[in-house]
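User: What would this chain look like folded?
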Amino acid sequence: MGYGLQLPNQVLPTAQTAPRFREVVGLPEVFTLSLIGLAFVGPTFIGHATRPLLVISALATAAYLIIQGKAANYISFVLWLWVVSALLRRIIDWQLGFQASNMVLLTPHLASMLGIASLLTQKRWRLPPQFATAAAVVAFGFLFGTVVGIADNGFVASVGTSLDYLAPLALATFLGAFIRHHGAALIASIGVKLLVVIAAYGLFQWVIAPAWDTAWLAAARDHAMSFGKPAAFEIRVFSTLGSPLACAFTLGAVCVLAVKSHSPKATSGLLVLSTVAIGLTQVRAVWFAVLLAGLALLVRGHKRLIRTAVFVGVALVIATTVSPTAGDMMTERLSTVGQGVNDGSFRERAFTYASVVPEAARDLLGAGMGGETRAIGLKGFTPTLDSSYLSLLVELGPLVGLLVLVALVPLLTSGITGVRSNDPQIQACAAYSATFPILLALGPILTGIMGVIFWTFLLQASRKRVAMDPSEAPAPALGIAAMR
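Assistant: Here's the prediction, encoded as structure tokens.
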């Protein structure tokens, strides 16, 4: 006797049905708020048991949503976990003491992998060919690096690093398999909530400098040495996330997507909030990525972007006038762009590439996953390479590393050609994806929340076609397949 846990009746978003996903507080938000509450009050009542209880609660929630066939809610909840896990860690550590290897940070990774576990029970599922090919080769590369890494760097370091790469890919694969025709609309509806929370908390962080954030900055100063000072108006904003780059990259992605998903008035308000927060991160690469994506959409004939850009520009001038500190900081960061090759950041990156590439090319098998720090222990190197290209080369070696990069080329190309899609939300994903080849050279955007955005946006850009109406195709079976 079999029992099927399949719910094919969950409404999937399209241009017409997307408002169904825009409730201010749904199940994912309720669960997320509960975890934040646990982070605040748990240490007082149950002490160090807060950390494992939070992880178990989050994974149980994710599993429940999968079993109940609530694919959209599962994706939304896991995205919230990616966004707030670093904040949850800081709140708990503020009360219980700093813990370098914190299990709370693994929560979104493990929750994302649960989706792949459920996917293996499905007999029929399909992904866009470009995405499927790239995902298979990349997964092989990371698994190869894991085997090498376990031998050279130890089990924990290797598997932990591999999970940081594979979990974002797993979540995007789940999205592509279970919500085949409406993924961009779903991400847009979830993204606006994430945008408001990340941007609003970022401004709060800049003005107030909450105790849990400043305590973490002081305790993790080796990791957060470029995050500014632990004081109001001197923090380099990282919001609920783990770094200014992750904050800026996430806000930039959702910002571009919001332009194509909401009315001009709503878009202007969202862009003002997010643009100020992106500015306070001081991540110039994302500033220009958002600008390039906006220009790509403008070329496609979206004239209302001009009016929105003017409104945002005026609001930014007012904001920097009200806060001269923020204005001076942004102006200083922009002024360094004109220095070109004389810019200190540019010289440091050029030195790193020139030094690392010849060394890494000699190690055919690579340093293995988790071996980046050990492999670059040369004079003048920073603790991280700050480049996805170099990380792949060092950890996977020249053979497998280049194989992974070659497999990504067709998918990255779709980020350029996808701008021609007649689906506005796919256009937005493609426009931002078109900047990924540059951003890969400037940061670890294949890991964490940035990796989720990387794979999800490329997944949508590779579709190129307008979303189908639910009546044109049966909804996919959600949940665990029938078992005997």
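The chain has a mean pLDDT of 80. If you want, I can go into more detail on any region.
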